[in-house]
Amino acid sequence: MSKGKAFDVFPRLRDVRIQPLTYQGRRGVLLQDPLRLTDQTLFVPAELAGALMFMDGRHTLEAIRSALAVRFGLQVPMDALKSLVQALDRALMLDNGRFRNVYREALRHFREAPARPMTHAGSVYPADLPALQDALEGYGKRVSSWPEAPVARVVGVVSPHIDYQRGGAVYAATWLPLARALQGVEQVVVLGTDHNGPSGSMTLTRQHYATPYGVLPTNRQAVDTLAAVWGEEAAFEHELHHLGEHSIELALVWLHHVLGGRSVEVVPVLVGGINHYIETGQVPWQDARLEAFIEAMRDLMEAKPTLVVAGVDLAHVGPAFGDPAPWGLAERARLKREDQRLMDAIRQGDPYAFYHAVAEVKDRFRICGFAPLYLYLRLLEGRLATITGYELCPADPEFGSIVSICGAWTSGSMTMA
């Protein structure tokens, strides 16, 4: 039996984005490819959606059909399951030979391109430079309270990665005052949230990053140094995540704008989760491999004037993210208190207080930036920060689901002992 045929008999679902949805009066889930290898989406009705949880490469279709009957009391025709598998295959949502061939070709094109393309130009922001400039400056009109512009060099920026339309005021308050404070920067380490990366991953790329201003060259020597510490295979195993991931791209567009189009070297790092430490009762600063990576990054920062950027959001709560009920006034008040603990830790440059604030509640609020924010605070440990903005953003039409965001600058000033 061929490998491709085995995957047909024992279907394995890829890591795809699954979103509850009601379509034409039918409840179900919408599947999307987070790697953007295809624009196809697939609606799976509720009576078939349960089959997805058994598509792990170990169950035959007959075993899946039996599991649905035993677990959920569903009598699903075999033809319906076969049709579902065929549709998943056509949409490149099965981890099989066809998907792997497309993946390898996409990775080859990504690496051979002059620069990583602007994946979100034309949707999150204009691809046309004059229109982009107008749009970014226009977000400044939404800022109700500007932070006092920094007088000293800023060494770190916490930037949202939510779309500009919802987070524009926090983006603007964070980035627009920084033109003078970033004049001496020669290198930018960008820690992006890898929405599709496995827990514990650090994903590098040697590819340059494009913005409407031009190309920001990646410091490939720095990338090679980090890859040697983390391990070449592990560092590039998920490199194609850089193609569709927005957390680095959206920060670099603002950076390039504030720099007036000036080119600086970048070191783009996509950071997976660190929730596995919470689950095992460990703490990340006792992980020797992670500590070695942090030390290597600190050494790179010593080599030339460096800005560290974390592309992160905070909480993701409400029905859109799996909570049973919308979040009302009482829940929002609690959320703000919890977010305040995180922002206090950012202000003090305290990675340990930040980690414990999330770990104590077992990441109840789904911090979408937990790992890169921890890494940011370790790299700039003990340095004081200014919170530039904070906002609760709607994640559904009823505003019962919420994404919270903040911005911050970290200065060179150290916390007093």
Q: What's the overall geometry? A: globular
CATH topology of the largest domain: Protocatechuate 4,5-dioxygenase, Chain B
> From the 3D coordinates, which CATH architecture of the largest domain would you assign?
3-Layer(aba) Sandwich
Question: How many helices does DSSP assign?
Answer: 16
Query: What does the average pLDDT come to?
Result: 94
Give the class from helix and strand content and strand pairing: alpha+beta
- Distance, first to last CA: 67 Å
Q: What is the N-to-C order of secondary-structure elements (H for helix, E for strand)? A: HEEEHHHHHEHEEEEHHHHEHHEEHHHEE
Q: Can you identify the CATH class of the largest domain? A: Alpha Beta
Q: CATH homologous superfamily of the largest domain, by name?
A: LigB-like
The percent range for strand residues is: 15-25%
- Strand tally: 13
In this structure, how is the largest beta sheet organized? 8 strands, mixed
Q: From the alpha-carbon coordinates, what is the Rg to the nearest angstrom?
A: 22 Å
The helical percent reads 40-55%
List keywords for this structure.
13 strands, Protocatechuate 4,5-dioxygenase, Chain B, disordered N terminus, alpha+beta, 417 residues, Outer Surface Protein A, domain 3, three-stranded antiparallel β-sheet, 2 domains, globular
